[in-house]
Amino acid sequence: MSGLDYYRPTDTYVAISDNRGEEGPIRAYTLKVPLDRAGKPAQPHFQRLIRLRDTNGQLYAPRTADTESIPWTPNHHGFVYTSEGEAKVGRAGFIRQSDLHGNVVRDFPIPKAYAPRLGTANTPVSVIRDNLGFESMSLGQGGATIAALSENALVQDGPSASVDSSSPARLLKIDRATGANLGEFIYPVDRVAPGALPVATGASEMLTVDHDTFLTLERSLIPDKGFTAKIYQTSTTGGDNVAGAASIPKTATPTTKELIFDFGPTSMSASSIVARQLQESPPWHGSPTIGAWQLPSAIERCRVPTNLRMQEVSRKKPTSGASRQRRREDSHFR
Questions:
Q1: Could you tell me the CA-to-CA distances from 6 to 74, 124, 294 in Å, in that order?
Q2: Which of 31-40, 47-56, 228-237 has the lowest mean pLDDT?
Q3: Which tens digits make up the pLDDT trace of 246-265?
Q4: What CATH number does the domain located at 3-331 have?
Q5: Which residue from 59, 71, 132, 216 has the fewest beta carbons nearer than 10 Å?
Q6: Band (322; pLDDT cuts 50, 70, 90)
């Protein structure tokens, strides 16, 4: 799983599979993750399997989407999710809103700078890099805005992260009602940690705090040792808005960021940290916390129950009896 979001009124999570359709359908789940009094996750309870559909209303064919991040919409009647695309074959990434049955509600406009443009021998000239696209996305201002962050720099904007240099990723802000581009800002992804793999280094998730402040999660994979991860607070205040630029100016001022948590010095495992959620603490704690940044190990180990297939959401027009059942099921999620 790659994305996770929480809806407090029903104590329900939505999660999305990091899957290009080669290991089962491209899909999302709803689930509950009970916590013990120490705040640790217990065995998750999967509720629904949602097979996601393309703009033609069909199940995604293999390798037509690479889904990553998924927040609920404010009314809890659906969700928004991202795909990184596949630059080497000219397939663009996207930001898409769907209903609870996986049907497309709308796509949000992505600036031309993010779209694949291939040169000789299909070499990318301008595009989101393969597997370094919209890994991160968050809704803000009560769901009025979308913020999405490329995992590394676009091809034309600068290098991917290395041990010698950081990578100027783009943070894109979109008006969710109109689709208008509210701004694009440069986010400096850290250099690759010593011994880490460049292809597994980047900004892997984000969370909107207010209109110009975000929490971002960066991680790197070190062979034989596992992941390292850090959480930053970043602000677009003072950063140059490069909206519409085919490539970012070399003199542009990036966003600022401040380290607020480093998993390295702690005993906490960073092996499956890919999701995020800012939520109130359980009742026995006193203040808000950053929760669910790490996909609970119980989810990572858990196999989806076989009988979950009986709860798959069909897009076929239901009979009257099925319609009543659908309403009963959906009422739980509203």
A1: 11, 37, 13
A2: 31-40
A3: 999 999 999 999 999 888 76
A4: 2.115.10
A5: 59
A6: very low
Q: Are 211 and 145 in contact (CB under 8 A)?
A: yes
Token readout for 226 is 């596992």
Quick one: pLDDT at residue 292?
37
Contact by Cβ (8 Å): 206, 215: yes
Question: Cα 113 to chain center, whole Å?
Answer: 20
CA distance 144 to 178: 10
For the chain, the domains span 3-331
Beta-carbon contacts of 250 under 8 Å, excluding residues fewer than 6 positions away, are: none
Enter the tokens of residue 31.
């689930």
Sheet strand arrangement including 3-7 = 3-7, 12-16, 27-32, 45-51
- What predicted TM-score, i.e. pTM, was given to this entire model? 0.82
Nearest one of 147, 255, 153 to 206, comparing CA atoms: 147
Strand spans (E) along 34-166:
45-51, 78-83, 94-99, 104-107, 117-118, 124-126, 136-140, 145-149
